Amino acid sequence: MEQLTLPVSSHAEGTVKLPGSKSISNRTLLLAALANGVTLIRDLLVSDDTARMLEALEKLGIKLEKLSETDWRVHGCGGDFPNKNAELFLGNAGTAFRPLTAALAFSNGHYTLSGVPRMHERPIGDLVDALRQIGAHVEYAGNESFPPLKISPAKVDVNKPIQIRGDVSSQFLTALLMALPLTGKAATIQVIGELISKPYIEITLNLMKQFGVEVAHVGWQQFMLPANVQYQSPKVVFVEGDASSASYFLAAGAIAGRINIFGITKNSIQGDIKFAEEIKKMGARIEYYDDHVYVERAESTKLKAIDLDCNHIPDAAMTLAIMALFADGTTTLRNIASWRVKETDRIAAMATELRKVGAVVEEGTDYIKITSPEKLTTNAVIDTYDDHRMAMCFSLVSLGGVPITINDPKCVAKTFPNYFEEFAKIAS
């Protein structure tokens, strides 16, 4: 297994330009493909996840023009994919697999969707159940409630409200929202239980509106889609920098220095921008500008421990777990059950690896408690579980004055292929 040993650091300073948001990139690609007209997408994320979406769209008959590494021209199909038979391999890209499942269920074709072994362990039963409620033909090609999937032509009926659970993954609701306009009929979605990761639904609604489809909703329990609407190209879309990726550099500045982070602003449509406000509670100084965010370390030698409901920042909350190593006392992160169905079981993985660096950790079904050690363990070897966020998070441990080794560092290619090069520029 490839390893990367990060040297001892005690200071972080510099400027970072973020890669494009994964959540925005893959949503925008699919909406542009389904729209009427041609869309120029600028600053698209270059990563494994976006590569899987681009490959899938090309197999479905969408004309794509690569203008540069980050700029693409997408020729929309007006809601009707040209290819009605396709086998799609989507890696471990949930932001491609879930929305494509719903869109293809309404596309009157024969499709198979598969991924890496971990994707076949990530539940999709709630989305399939919702699609079957309205007559979609979606079958499991392996284990019940998990990918891979087989999709066949079907006549769907959206006259009755579609019910979907909201407490497993917000991507299921996102998938339904983005796909239902393809039916051409008015539809209502009812969310059963608490909707987790609401900010990701806000991203979906915002982008759908940019493409001409506005969804009315009553709180977070009921969503109403209008009849006779089609996606229309907005001509040009600029992809924001990834706010989840920003969390590592915001944390680095808060722990050990000062950093300017370009690509996001306070007005980002991504919920993870709120990470900046949460680390202010730990003692970090944050300043917002028109084109970047500035962070500076806490005045005291240690950060303050916090007790936080993390439903609004599920991905960035992982970075708080590492910051807890530098905080005085015990940090508690709550309402993170969605961690268990991500690229790995992130609660279990985080608890295991935090203990390697000396933390005392308590894990529950939907929470984790981390008590910082008096001294970080030297030369810990961190397993990353083929999870990009585990690798990026644990790089921050080196800012505590200890060397640390990251196993399988290239797993960061999922969202931030050159992360470790960028981290090396600011760590000293």
Q: Give the strand tally.
A: 25
For the sheet with most strands, the description reads: 4 strands, mixed
Q: What is the oligomeric state here?
A: single chain
How far apart are the first and last residues' alpha carbons, in Å?
27 Å
* pLDDT averaged over residues: 97
User: Which regions are unreliable across 5 or more consecutive residues at pLDDT < 50?
Assistant: none
Number of helices, counting only DSSP H or I runs of 4 residues or more? 12
Rough outline? globular
Features:
12 helices, alpha/beta, four-stranded mixed sheet, 428 residues, 29% helix
Mind sketching the topology for me?
Blueprint: E1 3-6, E2 12-17, H1 22-34, E3 38-42, H2 48-59, E4 63-66, E5 72-75, E6 85-89, H3 94-105, E7 110-114, H4 125-133, E8 137-140, E9 149-152, E10 162-165, H5 170-179, E11 187-192, H6 198-210, E12 216-218, E13 222-225, E14 236-238, H7 243-256, E15 257-262, H8 275-281, E16 285-288, E17 292-296, E18 303-304, E19 307-309, H9 317-323, E20 327-328, E21 330-334, H10 346-356, E22 360-363, E23 367-371, E24 380-382, H11 388-395, E25 404-407, H12 419-426
Parallel strand pairs: 2-15, 3-14, 6-7, 10-11, 18-20, 19-21, 24-25
Antiparallel strand pairs: 1-25, 3-5, 4-5, 7-9, 8-9, 11-13, 12-13, 15-17, 16-17, 21-23, 22-23
Helix pairs in contact: 1-2, 1-3, 1-6, 2-3, 3-5, 4-5, 5-6
